[in-house]
Amino acid sequence: MLSVSNLIIALLSIFSILLLSVSYFIPQDSEINKLINYYDFGLCAVFLYDFISQLRKRKKRWRYFFTYGWLDLLSSIPVVSEFRYIRVLRIFRIFRIMKSFHLLYKFVITHKKASLYGFIVFVSTVILVLSSTLVLYFEKDVGNIKTAEDALWWSYITITTVGYGDYYPVTDLGKLTASILILNGIAIFGAIVSYITDRVNTIKRKSSLD
């Protein structure tokens, strides 16, 4: 049975392949490549959690594992040099998504609100990754955001709208990117509050019917 988590995993799988493709054109010793590796490690954690969840839900666990579960497991290996090319196995996940595209489309049509929350999570994740990567690219030679760790800390502080001020963009393109990330933070936290409120109201309605 499809759910909003399946939709998010499907979208993140496609994004991870794009991120993987870009990383092959960036020098391995660069800070930008290091930042992409950090995000890839985070995506691996998400995919590994999804693999474990799928394995626990299946009645025929070994059948799932020996059909395509082992591919999901291998594609969840973090980006370390020894397993760099194994990540290409994620493309098989994309093939499965394309095979069940009509089911995903039907889910989106019949569960519009849940799908909207899923899309917001996905878009916010993409904006976070792109914003921190672009700011590091724009600022590494002129600003104080020079390392992958600086970009990660800056993006976390910016998306939460805390803004300590220890790291900040100085270029025009960097400031524009920061503005987009701030708006993204406001949108994602608004969506989270809306989702929680919707879930609480749903539970209350079920309780009143019982």
UniProtKB/TrEMBL annotation:
Top-level lineage group: Bacteria
Keywords: Ion channel, Ion transport, Membrane, Transmembrane, Transmembrane helix, Transport
Subcellular location: Membrane
A GO term from the CC aspect: voltage-gated potassium channel complex
InterPro entries: K_chnl_dom, VG_K_chnl, Volt_channel_dom_sf
Name of a matching Pfam family: Ion_trans_2
Keyword Membrane in record: yes
GO molecular function: voltage-gated potassium channel activity
Record flagged with keyword Aminoacyl-tRNA synthetase: no
Residue ranges of domain Potassium channel in the record: 126-200
Chain ranges passing through the membrane: 35-52, 116-138, 176-196
Name used for this protein in its record: Ion transporter, ion-trans_2 superfamily
The species this protein was found in: Psychroflexus torquis (strain ATCC 700755 / CIP 106069 / ACAM 623)
